[in-house]
């Protein structure tokens, strides 16, 4: 066992940031609709909820939670404290609640209802990799369960201990391992500790003129290690790649020692162990360090907005862009429902801006567009001045061929500012008795329209079944040569059994993905939430191979057991 | 068991193409030096071999080979024949020799020496996936070993049965599964059978205006399934990606059934099973079908040649290109040794061409270049006219900044024509008592010069040890944002113990890769040849994870056992 460290350069456990225990983000920040005049009428129409009625559930009260007692023995806690120092091992109820769930709708509903069947028994905050190794060795020796914890933003149920878990559960919080250790400027490779939150990571890189370019919706509250463990994508993945592309090297602490994948640009050294760790959700060990591809901050960066007459035209344009010589940083198109939502969540525009908007809508109507069908698209460009200019002109040509209209950088700048605020809306809705959640898939271009239609149909049937008005909307968020990601948001006012009703809707959507040729998860991982469809997605033999991998790598089932595959 | 098929649309076993048993390519084709006036003096100087002396070993004589008798029982052969039809199961010596080795230098030396410790006992040619399943089920039931066979071009020892293998060895030749089954034009996805050889695959795609864009040096004699099984790269991978990027979907026959990875553009469904199959060299099952990314044939395609004053300038330019907004299809630069080799293997130029060449060399000398240091580079462009023009002008600007000089499309066109002929030189050298082979690595840009120097130093020490003059040369063949592949060719005149001497040189080079921060294989796989360095490359824990995967997926060790990891 290593000596307790007294590292003054490591972040203190007290300074590790966590989201509020009952919802997304930080205390005091939330979504408000009062400054968005279109929002309340929109919600009224979509799911029959009257925001002005002002009925709100009470703010969850921590003192009413019944948190199961920690089963960690004093001896075991002492062993952990011996490794990390006493102040860096905690067993208090608030900490244990914060480390119980991620932030899925299921998690939020349960935490608001005070449903905590099983909490981690002890949370430990190592200062370095050597301490992680000692924690793991001690935990495996004690036959405890180890669940790595980053930002806690997971929405696939990857973090919660199994309710039947009889062993001691250790939540291994990586929050103190949050630094960029080294940048290799020739190769654009940065060695970064796995616990770095998005903003901290980018700030450290930006300081030296670099960016990693990974911006998932959860960016503010998620970590590099979490992105890797769940195969995350970001809104600029069209340019920078999914996390699987960005990760070049890895250090993963396992019971036997440290798995080290050196940062080489490409290798043919058998099945890719790097690609086994990516998406492994803690089952192969604890990721402590990642060597990532970084890029020089672009000279210029712009997100342009376009309108298309309908989704068919818009998707066709996105497909042409993907197969062309153009390489935008963002390609995104909302369907008509989501476009209406976006317009409804805009703040009231005034003066010239309002006139321009009204003028545009009138013009589109004259051209025969139906405002119920039109779709808003964002396309981003990055690089030097000349590159951006040329890319934009090539995209404009494709857009014109598909009868789209460019409306400038205003809406894109707005989108860019508020892109990380969307998750707050779920808490806003829950406060008012409504559920909102997301499900995303990816499929080949040839199947995207079919998937889109199938999901709407499945959601409608599910809403009919639960007997509540429901809403669905969607955008295409990442594109590839062969296809794209479709990201769905759904919402409904729930009755007496919120999770029962949620299950019906969520299941219908996931099954529609599979049946229409999509995958069950494009960038949120599998966890517990998507596991029921894994076999239909990657086949029985695929699951057998994955189970075999986990079983051989972790014969005692100590590493985040029963996630991804049971 | 399925009924013997009578499929008139499947290729007949007699029509499956194989390379000659004793060397590369087809009978009657070989390298000749008589029309290349610079070659003999070059070889004389490099490794002290006098090509005009005309001493040649005798052409290997099949009748002198001692082929171990097949250990397959008549009953077992009858079972296989019952599956595929009698004419599609063969046990003759020539077929068994053809299926014993790949085409590594070690393989060529052994086959010429008549060294065949262990041959496959029976070769079977299934017509479809159902037959592959039946063969596998029957073989596993009989506890036989299954080694999939594509084009037989492997140079890492991935194909040979272990000399101590006591079980019956089945070589499963995919040669009849050689068709493009379906193209999804919207998504650019083609379903292709795994046994398709490069030229057959491209011809079928080209007919409909598509290309897969995968052109390894072995292209003429290697198959799609082989490329996937060994993590191949091609010379246009800068644009089209390595095979790991090109493969979107897979069908792999295993003892339990077919592993099906559906073609979705990206997914976060746990550790990537797709990336476990890529590079698995037969250990996870037999790949029967691959869904690959295809692209429209480009409007324009050009390879331009450039000269750089020395390797440092050239590599710096390649690095700048890789981190810029430019996306060429080929970036390649030969070091000074390989540049000299290229010039020496050119046919005699005449008239105006000769004058131009002489003029260029004189001009470079006047500029202070040393012809012993200058490096030849090829950069390829593809796309529409405007794209190619713009890319070329951006590259030219970077080249100029690094004091490089463009010399037009002539050399590139020549390179493009003869690029698949290089492997024939090994047989040419072996006929004359010299060994030539290749080893390639990849590393970050910051380490490339170090790797290059370390390999030269290691090779020199090895040549000193074996007491023969030796030669090494290198080119950078693929570039990525974070680094590139360095591809080394080495040659020497051997003494009494060709393989013993070869081992000393090859080992020195592989160890230099590791010690200087490169990987042990960029695109040739692991097999037996590179396995000794795997642990140093991907760490002890990495090998443990991979072993665990193989052990769990194939508990009986029936699938190409002891390859990659023992």
Automatic annotation (TrEMBL), chains A, B:
FAD-binding PCMH-type domain boundaries: 116-297
UniProt key word Oxidoreductase: yes
One Pfam entry name: FAD_binding_4
Keywords: FAD, Flavoprotein, Oxidoreductase
Keyword Oxidoreductase annotated: yes
Family note: Belongs to the FAD-binding oxidoreductase/transferase type 4 family.
UniProt-recorded name of the protein: FAD-binding oxidoreductase
